[in-house]
Structures are given as C-alpha cells and as structure tokens.
Amino acid sequence: MNKIGIIVNPLSHTLSPNIHNSAIQHFDLNISFEKWELKKTELERFFLNAKDNNIVGGCITVPHKENVLKYFDFYDDSVKRIGAANWFKIEDDRILGFNTDFIGFEKSIPESALNNLNELNCVVFGSGGSAKAVVEALSLKKAKNICIINRTFTKAIEIANKYRNSRITSLNLDSIESIKNKLIKADLIVNTTSVGMSSGPDPDGNLVLGYELKTNVIGIDLVYSPNKTPFFKKISEFGGQAINGIDMLIYQAQAGFEILTGENCPFEIMKSALILD
Ligand code: ATR
After folding, report:
1. Which residue's alpha carbon is nearest to atom 11 within ligand 1?
2. Residues annotated catalytic, as ranges
3. Residue 147 half-sphere exposure toward CB, CA atoms < 13 A
4. Cα separation of 231 and 221, whole Å?
5. Which of 49, 162, 261, 267 is found 20 to 30 A from 175 (Cα to Cα)?
6. Which residues form the pocket of ligand 1, taking CB atoms under 6 Å from any ligand atom?
7. What is the mean pLDDT of residues 99-116?
8. Considering the chain, what is the average pLDDT of its residues?
9. What is the pLDDT of residues 201-239, one digit of tens each?
C-alpha cells in the first residue's frame, strides 16, 4: 500500500493525521497516513529510502520546512520564492517540493481585507518558514506595508531584504517604542511564532500584550492549539476580528492533498475530523 504522512518533531499535537485520514476515507483511497518524527540528521536517510518504503509524498512541518530543501530534486516556484517547503511528492525517481502555506494563509484572510490589502498596514511576528509564506502572500497581494518583527532580528532583516521593497521593513522584538508605533496603526497582525501554543515553549505568552491596538484590527494567529490563544483573546478584547490557525491548516492541507492524489477534498470534510478545544 502506498503511504503518505507528516514529517514533524515533536509529534505531540499535530492535527494533520486526522485531516488527511478523513480525506482518504472520503475518496476511499488505498493509501495509509503515517507520522514521521525525525531529527534533522535523520532527514537524509528518510528521503533516500522513501521510494523503497512506498512513500509517495507528505507534508512537512516544524522545524523542517527549510531543512528539507537540500534533499529535493525539483522545487516548485513557490518554494523558490519563499525558501521553505511544506509538501513533497515522489514522482518517478524525483523528490519534488511544494509550498501551499501561502495559499492557505491567503484563503484564511477575511474577504473584505483581502480585497483591500493595498490599504492595510500589516505586522508579522516571527521569521521562520511560516512567516516567509505569510510575507510572500501579503506581498503578492500588494499589502500597503509589511513590518516583520522577530526575536532574532537578523532573520527578520533577511526576509525583508529579499524583497528589496521599501514597503517591507523589519523590527527587533526588543524595540518596544517602534513596535508600539507600528501596532497602533496596524490593520492586520499575524502571529507566526509558537508563542501561545499549548505544547510550545511559552504557552501563556502573547507578543501583543501591553500594546494599544486599533479597535477594528484583524488578528490571525497561526497557532490553533488552544483554539483561543492569548493573542486571539487580546484581539477580541479590543473589538477586533480574531482568527486562529485552523482555517489555514485546512486550506494548506487541501492544496497539498490535491498535489499528491489529484483529489480536491471539501473543506468541511477535513474540518469535521477535528475535535477542537
Ligand atoms: P515555522 O516553520 O512554523 O515558521 P520556526 O521556523 O521554528 O517555525 O519559527 C518559529 C518562529 O517563532 C521564529 O521566528 C522564532 O523566533 P527566533 O527566530 O528568534 O527563534 C519564533 N519564536 C519561537 N519562540 C519564541 C518566543 N518565546 N518568543 C519570541 N519568538 C519566538
């Protein structure tokens, strides 16, 4: 039987198996879904043996979205632009890499905002693979400006520099006064860090804590466990529209599942597989 699965470490809280098993059942496919908890040093052997192990593809998540790139024979354009992959497919003897995170993120932006991004001030917290996909989606949609804020400042600078565009800037997470000035004008704030994640290093943390926000701000937290993170609650308290990472998780999964199987699984089928807290 052919296998698909998820490359992740640690395994603890991933919802991807539920999502993809529901899609496999929906189409009655003869495929099994596995979980591959791999260290960085185990990736090379995994990809070398993948075809012999009947693996036809899978998704990639924290912390390997960038680590996997050197094992691919071909990248989709999206991977080249973003510098991270969240899906791979094995076709003939080649390993192909794709990025569907930016599609998932774009689809999770409320339509009213998506249609007016050229008028919106955007702030993105984080500078990992997810942040790169978010910045790419916002940039493609011509956001008015994008400020990338990260604890490791060099990583934020690196993403901003890639675009060579004065609308895309960066700040150090320690620059309290500058962040204050950005956040008070922000129309869309995205948290791509693991701060606030129940199984992460800082489950009670909130990167917008103590800052004044616009009352009509839109806040998207890529974290989905818990359902309502401290960031999510703060956006709601200010009267803003808070969105968690479930929609993006499903939309990116939908696009990836279609790349592997050719089947377009309905959003509601994938969502119904999730028990949310
Ligand atoms: P992903 O692939 O989901 O983007 P990642 O590459 O591990 O995951 O990136 C995680 C992001 O969360 C990084 O920007 C990280 O900041 P650093 O670049 O400084 O490591 C950010 N992050 C994680 N824990 C954090 C914390 N406690 N405070 C602030 N930022 C944090």
Report:
1. 193
2. 65
3. 21
4. 7
5. 162
6. 62-63, 65, 126-131, 150-152, 155, 173, 192-195, 201-202, 205
7. 97
8. 96
9. 899 999 999 999 999 999 999 999 999 999 999 999 999
Is residue 90 within 8 A of residue 50, CB to CB? The reply is yes
Tell how far the Cα of 194 is from the centroid of ligand 1, in angstroms: 6
